[in-house]
Design goal:
Layout: E1 4-9, E2 15-20, H1 29-44, H2 52-63, H3 71-92, H4 96-100, E3 106-115, H5 121-133, E4 138-142, H6 147-161, E5 166-170, H7 177-189, E6 195-196, H8 204-213, E7 218-220, H9 227-235, E8 241-242, H10 252-262, E9 268-269, H11 277-288, E10 295-298, H12 303-309, E11 310-311, E12 324-326, E13 336-337, H13 339-343, H14 363-366
Parallel strand pairs: 3-4, 3-10, 4-5, 5-6, 6-7, 7-8, 8-9
Antiparallel strand pairs: 1-2, 3-12, 11-13
The protein binds magnesium ion.
Length: 369
């Protein structure tokens, strides 16, 4: 993985930190850096920071017709938007969620874990045991192309964990429609809470066809950029669980717009998390301001990254109480990025290595498409 942090400083010396979710090295930090330095910085330097939204809108309006409203430009804009929120909170001496209007100070987390093919059922149970000990009751696993073997493993996990623990499954965008339909039926038989990203996110017609017939709820959102796209997907009935990420979709304000838009469609909202400490903090604050959000993604494999790069907020499994994590109470986003540590780990472009993998693209990311 790589991590992309943004630092914004005001002329009074207040520093804000933002982050873009890079999803396992997929978004190439040097590309994001160029967009921030060459495109967004000139739009912001010298502007008064009275509120975040006018500046976030300024960045969006200046770039949407060329760099576009999706993917890397929005990743980069998200990171800057979070840094602006961090500053506004610090200037007010309050946390971002309390500034916006907080409805909870703790958010239930679900354990977001590995591919089913990586472990035996007993091995999976052993991996998640420390989280179950902290009161976590929902666990997400990843299904690969050999989905029948994975379903067998999941069936065993289901019986080992007992009915108190709920299971979700992530398809990592690898299936065609006919296979995804078969997987969905099998997952429904196991009482799975949702089937996430079963088809590549660009296969909108296929996703729509699956969502219409799937007996298990369909989840998308970590690759939906803003309310316009989310509303379009929901209007077409393409998902039942929306998973916005404030460090991907355009920022905290945009994630909130997506969450508010979900209610009339009867769509559940569960924020996506798969990045460093600033991204996690931002999504926690986002979750704390939306009454309908009761759950957030929590990848325990990143706990070491969170504690290495930041202080100020406790995010490790030991900080989970009764299955929930405390929203950082400090001013701004409530995490102090350790710049020295970040600078000591300079970005290495992946080169010929495929982003998100070591030594090539594993079959589990190719699937049956
Ligand atoms: Mg996912």
């Amino acid at each position: 993985m790589s991590f992309f942090f943004v630092r914004v400083e005001t002329d009074s010396g207040v520093v804000g930190y933002g982050e873009a979710c890079d999803s396992y090295g997929c978004s190439y930090a040097s590309v994001l850096q160029t967009i921030v330095d060459d495109v967004f910085a000139p739009l912001l330097v010298g502007q008064p920071l009275l509120a975040v939204e006018p500046l976030a809108d300024r960045m969006r309006l200046f770039t949407r017709r060329r760099l576009g409203d999706q993917w890397v430009a929005v990743h980069a804009r998200s990171a800057v938007e979070l840094a602006l929120w961090d500053i506004v909170g610090k200037l007010a001496g309050r946390s971002v969620s309390s500034l916006i209007g907080s409805v909870r100070d703790r958010v239930e987390v679900y354990a977001s874990t590995v591919f089913l093919e990586e472990q035996s059922a007993a091995g999976h149970v052993e991996l998640i045991a420390p989280l179950l000990d902290r009161g976590v009751t929902k666990v997400k696993l990843r299904v690969g192309p050999d989905w029948e073997a994975d379903v067998a493993t999941l069936t065993e996990i289901r019986s080992l964990l007992g009915p108190r623990i709920q299971l979700m499954v992530d398809g990592s965008e690898i299936f065609t429609l006919p296979t995804a339909q078969q997987v969905a039926v099998a997952l429904h038989a196991l009482g799975v809470l949702w089937f996430e990203e079963p088809l590549p996110q660009g296969n909108r017609a296929g996703i729509e066809a699956l969502a219409r017939v799937s007996p298990v709820p369909i989840a998308y959102g970590e690759h939906l950029f803003g309310a316009d796209e989310a509303v379009d997907a929901m209007r077409r009935g393409q998902l039942h669980v929306l998973q916005p990420d404030a460090s991907t979709c355009g920022g905290i304000s945009e994630a909130r717009r997506m969450a508010h838009a979900a209610a009339p469609f009867g769509v559940r909202v569960v924020p996506h998390v798969c990045a460093g400490p600033v991204s996690l903090a931002a999504n926690m604050h986002f979750a704390a301001t939306i009454p309908a959000i009761g759950l957030i993604e929590y990848p325990p494999s990143l706990a070491m990254v969170w504690s290495t790069f930041a202080s100020g907020a406790a995010f490790g499994p030991e900080a989970i109480i009764d299955g929930a994590l405390l929203v950082p109470p400090g001013a701004g986003l409530g995490v102090d990025l350790d710049e020295a540590t970040a600078l000591a780990h300079p970005y290495q472009p992946p080169g010929a290595r495929v982003a998100g993998t070591v030594g090539g693209l594993p079959d589990r990311f190719v699937g049956d498409r």
